[in-house]
Structure of Amine oxidase, flavin-containing superfamily:
Amino acid sequence: MRFLIAKALSLAVVAVSRAITPHSGFDPSKFQPHEAITRNVCIIGGGSAGTYAAIRLRQMNQSVVVIEKENRLGGHVNTYDDPVTGAAIDYGVLYYEDLPWVRDYFNHFGIALERVSVLGQQLTQRRVDLRTGTPVGPAEGNMLLALASYAGQLLKYPDLNSGFNLPEPVPPDLLLPFGEFVKKYKLEGVVDIIATFNQGAGDILQQLTLYMMKYFGLDVLQGALSGFLQPTTHNNSQLYGAARNELGEDAWLNSTVVATHRHEDDEWVYVLAKTPAGQRLVRAKRLIIAIPPRLDMLHGIDLDETERDLFGQFSNTCYYNALARIPGIPEKIQFLNRANDTLYQLPPMPAVYIISHTRSPNLTTILYGSKEHMTEEQVKSNMTRSVLQLRNAGIPVQAPEFLRYSDHSPFLLTVPAEAIRNGFYRNLNDLQGHLSTYYMSATFNTHDSAQIWRFVDGLLRAHWTP
């Protein structure tokens, strides 16, 4: 019976398809009935935003299909199953703020959570200039007093982590380079901790205050002081494995978009995907794009002039992480890359952010950032050079043996202050629902899973709830 219903739906897809005039050179009517499926929503991207949207929509009795280019869901989540200890080692996303919707999401899959103190974790921090191996002194200023002052600034903008719903005119402070904002309000004591949490943000002193405050907002600040959540298994991929099981055949992995057909006069959106089973056609009422809205990431999507103009204004940082065995590195040590000859001791980019021991006695994570994109060979070479500089700090390390490597570029997408003053984010928000398409990646809120889920849930409630 299920096969007959599916076949009837497929025939209906083709019948409707033949009646439309394609606007992008993509003609859905050329595909066979068995290659077409009908869903309420087609989601491009199975990272944090896309997976959460799929699960929430199914809870709202909407049918979905997720098209994901990787062989797994989860985006920036990276987990390694250590064959030596049997432990799961997260080396991508680590923690989540303790917020109701975070607990609800994990509870939906029966995944237990525990609170973890990051600042009080059982790791000894050493501050080292990884260009030379030279020790670096303590951070400037009083962190706790500066955090209190910083929290006061955040309270001026209570809706900052609910997307980019900015007041007009945009408050000038939000458009200051963060380094100028720090000087203006004497917040020197927060720079070091924000640099530690805002990995992947590049030169944080040059980034606009808006982006830094969204990335290190009140919820993150509270988590830094009182603790975050993580699965008791210390395996964040467990969440996405459970989501994959729930979605079943509606999660198309190792799949990419070939073409889309969207038009304001059409009732349906059409998406042609390349999958391991061949090309497949999706007919959906609505489309969700949950990948970074950079033009080079949106191949196959029939963007109109408005979308192209907005997305073409983005710049981005680049972010990479690796898991390695480093013979000679001591256990329970975290090396922060700092400098003796720079403002606030921040290392010049490109650079390693942190070299950190994991809960496995054999494994270490290395986090790296750059402004311009670098090849895997370049990043690993620079990581290796930085690790070997620890010899000058008296640590008899050997070159790392890389077990896993991930390139999370493009990472933080930003636009200049002038564009924001001229209404960039107002125009970006206006894209929600344009051509039956909704945008839900981190770019539309911030690189923080808990805040992404809050943003996605708000959009779904606004546009899908009767």
